[in-house]
Amino acid sequence: MPTAKELREKRQAKIDEAQAILDTANGRAPEARSLTADEKTKYDGLDKEIDDLSDEIKRTEKAEQRAAESAGKKAPLNNHHNQEKRDLSKFSFRKMCLDVVENRDQSGLEAEMSQEAEREARSLGITLEGRAHIPHLLAFGAQKRDNTVTQPTQPEDGAAVVFDEQPQEMLGLLRPRLAIAALGARIITGLRGELPLPGMTQGAVATWKGEVEALDKSNVKFTRGNMKPHRLGTYIDVSKQFLVQASPDVDALLRADLNAAMSQALDTAAIYGTGLDNDHQPLGILNTPGVYILAVADANGRVPTYADIIALEASPEIINANAGNTSGYLMNSKIKGTLKNTQIVNGQALMVLMNNTELNGAKLVVSNIVTDQARGTATNASAIVYGSDWSNVILGQWGGLDLTVDNLTLALNGKNRIIVQSWWDVAVRRPNTFSAIRGVVPSAHIAALAPQ
User: Fold this and answer.
1) How far apart are CA 166 and CA 178, in angstroms?
2) In this structure, what DSSP letter does residue 174 have?
3) Pairing state between β 378-387 and 393-406
4) Any idea where the domains of the chain sit in the sequence?
5) N-term to C-term CA, the chain
6) For residue range 355-391, what is the model confidence (pLDDT) as tens digits?
7) Which are the contacts of 208, defined by CB distance < 8 A and separation ≥ 6?
8) What is the pTM of this model?
9) How would CATH label the architecture of 136-452?
């Protein structure tokens, strides 16, 4: 028996076919004309088929709804309903891990979620290795969706089904908290296959010409890149005594630890990723061709100046990549402290950085993912990254999470290792909207405060 979706597609094909008959008579002839006898017969037959399919769709939708209800949940066309929100709130990450530790088969909602993740992975061509899995919806939260737009009939209670970004606390299990996202980078979840992301490196050029002169051809140039999944894994070690606790706070602690590890890895890849096959990393901003890198001639690095900050901002603007609503600077806490203690003009009280959230009129995000690196004799050289439009950074995510609980490696210590794997990529759509200075070091005063 065909599904409601298949029937809707069939009805749309009939509608298109009927419209084509009318277009032939009205829209595509030099003069409008009446339908021929053959066209009338065919059109009337299609019209009846469309009405019959509409009735069949209504019956099939009701049957599918009843079948879903008998299985214990509602299932409108977007596969989610308010009832499912209540069910998902009962999911326990801790219980899923404990079942694996004690070699029990998954049951209840945890088993259902694991099976859903397996189906999801198969559709993406991803091989899951662990004994438990978490689907995309539960791992990273749902996108906001209103069924009044996506489905032709309302739920039986007459209310639109709306999915909030995080409908309740348990959803968004591992939605990462990223510094690049705070600056305006976009996160796209639930991807399938490679994602093409074309960008323009040279636009059209307008020229003045005489009344009948030919316009000059514009040499418009595009870049083309595909985002594809890179495997990212992280783990934490916990005792069995910790896992057997029934408190919801235990779930929250597990999620927080995994979230912190994943967020750090994703942020670091977005900035420093090499993009090399043997590193299995995405390509980060500092290694993306087209990003302007302000040279620091000092062999051992130097303290940044107000002129450096101005140069970082000017670089994108000079080539018309002007600042938008998501312009901002990224630096670590040592450089932030240095700029707050650096005078714009010697002898005056105005400092390069006057507060913790804004620098030179743009947003400032401080994160120690901007790491210390060696430069000559300096071991604490780092970078300042400026973006005139951080929404040009795209962080893509595929599928859900693959969960492995290792109860053997640390058995002598009474611990279990919880390993999570996921799939991500980073893309910079317009590299010329970014600039950076590498090799900046903190002032002596701030460097002395930092732990050795």
Assistant:
1) 17
2) T
3) unpaired
4) 1-71, 136-452
5) 70
6) 899 999 899 999 999 999 999 999 999 999 999 999 9
7) none
8) 0.66
9) Alpha-Beta Complex (3.90)
Pair type for strands 328-331 and 362-366: parallel
- Tens digit of each residue's pLDDT (9 = 90 or more) over 189-248: 878 778 777 665 566 678 888 888 888 877 656 555 788 889 998 888 888 888 888 777
The tokens describing 280, both together, are 């299995």
- Residue 62 pairs in a beta bridge with none
DSSP 117: H
Task: Lowest mean pLDDT of 200-209, 279-288, 289-298, name the range.
Answer: 200-209
Q: Mind giving me the DSSP string for 151-165?
A: -SS--TT----EE-S
Distance of alpha carbon 31 from alpha carbon 17, whole angstroms: 21
Identify the CA nearest to 390 among candidates 296, 334, 325, 302: 325
| 119, burial (CB in 10 Å: exposed 0-12, middle 13-18, buried 19+) | exposed
SS3 376: coil
Place of tokens 């991500």: 424
Contacting residues for 140 by C-beta, under 8 A, at least 6 apart = 172, 173, 174, 175, 189, 190, 397, 400
- Sign of the Cα torsion 328, 332, 337, 341 reads negative
Q: Give dist(CA 76, CA 12) in Å, integer.
A: 20
259, two tokens:
């979230």
